[in-house]
Design a protein that fits this description.
This protein is about 30% helix and about 20% strand. It contains seven helices and ten strands.
Amino acid sequence: MRRKCERALKDRSVAGIILAGGRSSRFGRDKALFDFQGRPLIAYVMDAFSGTARRIIVSVSPGRAASFRELFGDSIELVEDDSPFEGPLFGIAKAVEMVSEEFVLLAPCDMPFLDRALYRLLLMRIEEHEAAMPILRNYHEPIIGAYRTDSLRRAAVTAISKGHRKLSSILAELDVIGVSELELKGAGIDHIAFMNIDAQP
């Protein structure tokens, strides 16, 4: 059964979007490029997509693309957020326009402990649903998820058209399957995977 699931994952067309367009006001500098244990913080998130995402798209604030290009070259694609500092929903809406793959993964730039196994699990669990994401402390976490690309594109546009700003507003527009903490633990995914870096060490 496991081998069958792994083969199914390999056959899927998947892209990844990393959100790196925030102010980083509490951090004091560009969080995504901060040197964390010898590597840019965002590099760890890129690792979490490896083996599943064929392409990685990074949503950045206007004027920041050159800094990312200097470090990562052509290994990533960059898109500048049309509505900087309005929240991740707007960055997602712009970035997902670039995605032609059937599925798309989402991640913030500040979670260096995200696990490849997490995204493989989410892609396996999505099945006939439009999105799969962890449920942590009884709340869905849409910023860490696997989505059908067309569904995410539609949900983001609809939420914005209704005047919403919070990413959680897309939940009402999607058929979501949540993955419980118990299931995550059973898959060997530790709670540290969801720890974000909010301030310089």
